[in-house]
Amino acid sequence: MLSFAGAEDGPFTWESAVYHRAGLLNPRLVTTGFWAEFELGCMGVFGTDDTRTTPAMAAYTYPYDGQQGIDTTFGCLEIPNPCESVPGNDGSKATGFISSVQFNGPWSRIQGARVAAAQLLPDGGAPLPITVEDQGNGNGGFLDGGFDVIPQQPLAEGTWYTGSAAGTVEAASPGFEELSVPFSVSWRFKTILVPRDPGLALSVAGGRPRVSSSNPTPIELAIRDGGTRRFSLRLHSAGRGRFRATAPTRRLRTVRWQVCASQPADAGGVWKPDRTCVRGSPLSLDVDVLYASKYLVRLRIKAPSSAVGRPARVVMKTTDGLPPARANVILRPKSRLDLRGIPATGASLRVSVKPFRKRGIPQRVRAVSKHLHWAAAPSARAPHPRRR
């Protein structure tokens, strides 16, 4: 037996591979050996001992009776491939997890099992379509004297199943007399429930937090905008498996705020816990001086999307006592503005935007201040800026 990229699971690497599992769980197995290195694992089974008998017939099921956390599918990666025994399956279509049953008893040899009837029944549901491999069917020769039950379709998550079968064990007595011993066996197991990510989404619409999730359980909401406000929101169906709610509160009150939504795991274990936050803070402009001389000052102003369309006030004060140069500009993602030139002694520049609300959320843009200076070379000609 050989496993690639799964050696960290030890012998459990072969748990779902029914023919390999049968060799590991043979009641008369004598010796095993396991080796793992470089993400490669190898498991060996070294013969059986027919003196390892039981006083009466014993049936060993896998999953064992009452086992939980069983996979819902078998991925058809075993060689030989049990999926090929399922009618209409070319060996590539996943089946449900395959149950196996093996036997021991007071016999000198176990030749195999023949199944007369078998069933796999989910709690509260109808029997599933199954395929049985035994001594006379499919790859039953790889099952070490037992049989398997293959669900033709993947199993449901988090569901209890009851398997049952009846038939005969073909064996030989200590005197080598051929025997056909009837059996009837049943077992129960529960499939694994894989918690899902609910995809919790949080946004702010009209200044109020809005949440949506695939998990319908209530959401805890915390709003920090000067103080802390907490809410428990019940979600309402928004269609297509999504649920939504808007916080019943006043709009956000400050420029700097944080809203966090958290949703615990539900009691049934279907959903994972989830948490997400959104934040607001003062906006920033990026002001670059592209050119400065005693003739002209050219500015480039980059604005964040929330400030686009707002009027910005630009004031440049020189140090020579001249009146300030003032200008207004409607902000774009990138805006350019020309002001009069500055003397060699320099000037101070300030770009500001009045506070405003956008989509119900308070906004403030940090003012930008810069010091400008231009010194002419003694014999240099006045440069002419290139217009773009």
Top keywords for this entry?
388 residues; mainly beta; Immunoglobulin-like; four-stranded antiparallel beta sheet; 28 strands
What spatial form do the alpha-carbon principal axes imply?
Answer: elongated
Described by strand count, sense and barrel closure, the largest sheet is:
4 strands, antiparallel
For the record, what CATH class of the largest domain applies?
Mainly Beta
Give the neighbour order of strands across the main sheet. 4-6-9-8
E-strand count: 28
Oligomer: single chain
Helix content: under 10%
- At the fold tier of CATH, the topology name of the largest domain is Immunoglobulin-like
Distance from first to last alpha carbon: 73 Å
Low-confidence stretches: 377-382
Structural class given helices, strands, pairing?
A: mainly beta
CATH architecture title of the largest domain: Sandwich
Which whole number gives the mean pLDDT? 91
Can you count the helices? 1
Strand content: over 45%
Secondary-structure element string? EHEEEEEEEEEEEEEEEEEEEEEEEEEEE
Number of domain modules? 3
Alpha-carbon Rg, integer: 38 Å
